[in-house]
Design a protein that fits this description.
The protein contains 13 helices and 13 strands. By secondary structure, the protein is an alpha/beta fold. The protein has 2 domains: 147 residues, Rossmann fold; 141 residues, 3-Layer(aba) Sandwich (Rossmann fold). A 7-stranded mixed beta sheet has the order 7-6-8-9-10-12-13, sandwiched between helices. A 6-stranded parallel beta sheet has the order 2-1-3-4-5-11, with helices on both faces.
Length: 323
Amino acid sequence: MKHLKYLPVILLTALIASCQQGEKKTEIPVVGFVDAFQDASIAPARTGFIDALKKNGFEDKKNITIDYSNALGSIPTLTQIVNRFVSHKVDLMATCTTLSSITAAQKTKTIPIFMMVSPTVKLMNMEDASGKGQANLFGAVEDLNYIDTSFSNIPKFMKPKAGKLVVGMIYNQSEPQSVDAKKRIQADADKLNITLVALPLNSSAEAQLVTKSLLSKNIDAFFANPDNSVFASFETILKSCDQANVPIFTSEAGLVQRGAVAAFGADIYQWGYQAGEQAAQYLKTKSTAGLQPEMVKVRRRVYNAAAAKKYKITVPSNFEAVK
């Protein structure tokens, strides 16, 4: 009869075990978001991505977890962040800028990657022999076609000081996208009868020295091409150009807010939003069926009123002032 005194305990234990078995285990999806560096121009992409998720019913700390990390321009740190996401088996990765997208693609072939502020898979040299990219790459990407329009805007804004218009640029010779952009811009310059002076660099740390060397060559304007080194060191470039009285034109709308005169380029917020819509579809369906990297949909012609006034530039009517 002694064993009867343990019966309530046994029954309670059995009841708890039964309830636990009957409960459906639910896990909150984890989104691993990685920025390659801290930059005011690309920050709206993250905001757009998160807004798209929220509009589609996915909100951080409610029904999803957004694990955000910024590598602050450090390649080793970027690698560590991506490795952590892979080892923790996040449900998807969101990658902002080229370096983040390339690093993520190199580290996983299974976790869906939703890219933004990144070029096409082809421009990242990540296609296989048959011309296909990895099956886990999605999001919104950009090619170099818009650079033609961006660069051709320069003669509409200004006249040369003497003879042919001379435009200078710097490019990162270690970034395939930047090298391809330089080739594209050279072809545009030749068509427009513009003299292009292009100097290479290897990192943003060299930007000040290389920019000053470029400015010593009597350029009429500076073209800020889509280059991570340009993004990271733009304030340094802007200061040097302003001191030399040389206006900056660009293909990146975000750089106009930071002091460039004008641009024709992707709306960075909408770029992130577009990638976020794809990520939301994946979270809803748990399937990547029908998803693929798609071209940026929203581009804008914008100008900086203060910069235009400084350089006494008359802006065409189809450009809108940035706020």
